[in-house]
Amino acid sequence: MSKTRDQRLATAFVSLADTLVADFDVVDFLGTLTERAVELLEVDAAGVILTDQRGGWRPAAASSEHSGLVEVFAAQTRQGPCLDCVHSGRVIASPDLSADTGRWPEFAGLAVDAGFRSASAVPMRLRDDIIGALTLLRAQPGDIDEASVELGQALADVATIGILQQRAVSREEIVSEQLQATLHRRTVIEQAKGVLAEHGNLNMHEAYTLLRRYARGSGRRMSDVAHDLANQALDPDELFGRHGNSRSGQPPSSKEASG
């Protein structure tokens, strides 16, 4: 019997709060945040940007690794509701992205091309400190309902607390070091995705799925596996041999941007 929405919400909050473990993987953790957002909030895609501690913002996770969606979230580091959200500290929404090409020409254009028509961004914050934002995208125009936005904010708040408390000696240490490490690991994961995609003729989402499945199956952090792949310390055939062909045989769902 399938879980009720309340049960799934409770499970999501528990998983996002459970960060005080020795093998905590913040990249996988943020991936879980975006996946739970899509599952629970009646949206079609979700993504996270984080501060790089130098006055800039960088993409850290997305609910799908398909190229169209990755480009949308990369654009959000330069313009869009997510960037406006981290600067203002409040929810920023666009019920019709096609009408916002004047406000966010690059972001809105890429989002519409990828099949999205509306967006909302909620801040990832602890008190007055904003470390990033969670963006929610829908394929249909119109405001994302208030209940979903409020739940999205609650998920973002819990995730923020989880990141900042993980092995924290001080909040300053986490903000300045943990987030830097997260963004570095994401860069290494991008390199490993490229290795797997070229080796196995996969698209980037399939490569990411294979990398994540292997890391979980072997009890290792995804960033550590990615590091070994990028540095040729791990043969890509090991991943394909353990899990076989990562292609599902199914076309991308409506919750995955075209890529």
Salient structural properties:
kinase activity, GAF_ANTAR, Beta-Lactamase, disordered C terminus, Arc Repressor Mutant, subunit A, ANTAR
Structural notes for this entry:
This is Transcriptional regulator. GO terms for molecular function: kinase activity; RNA binding. Residues 236-259 are annotated as: Disordered. InterPro entries: ANTAR, CheY-like_superfamily, GAF, GAF-like_dom_sf, GAF_ANTAR, WH-like_DNA-bd_sf. This protein is α+β, with helices and mostly antiparallel strands and 259 residues long. It has two domains: 5-167, Beta-Lactamase, CATH 3.30.450.40; 184-243, Arc Repressor Mutant, subunit A. Helices cover 53% and strands 14% of the residues. The chain is built from ten helices and five strands; from the N terminus they run ααββααβαββααααα. A five-stranded antiparallel β-sheet has the order 2-1-5-4-3, sandwiched between helices. Helix 1 runs parallel beside helix 6, helix 2 runs antiparallel to helix 6 and helix 7 (171-200) crosses helix 8. The longest helix has 30 residues, at 171-200. Mean pLDDT is 82; it is low at 246-259.
Poorly predicted sequence stretches spanning 5 or more consecutive residues:
246-259
By CATH reckoning, the class of the largest domain would read Alpha Beta
How many distinct beta strands?
Answer: 5
Strand order of the largest sheet: 2-1-5-4-3
Number of domains: 2
As for the CATH topology of the largest domain, it is: Beta-Lactamase
Beta-strand residue percentage: 5-15%
How widely separated are the two ends? Answer: 34 Å
Overall shape = globular
Q: State the CATH superfamily name of the largest domain.
A: GAF domain
Please give the CATH architecture of the largest domain: 2-Layer Sandwich
Largest sheet: 5 strands, antiparallel
Pfam families: ANTAR, GAF_2
Biased composition (Polar residues): 246-259
Domain ANTAR: 169-230
Region (Disordered): 236-259
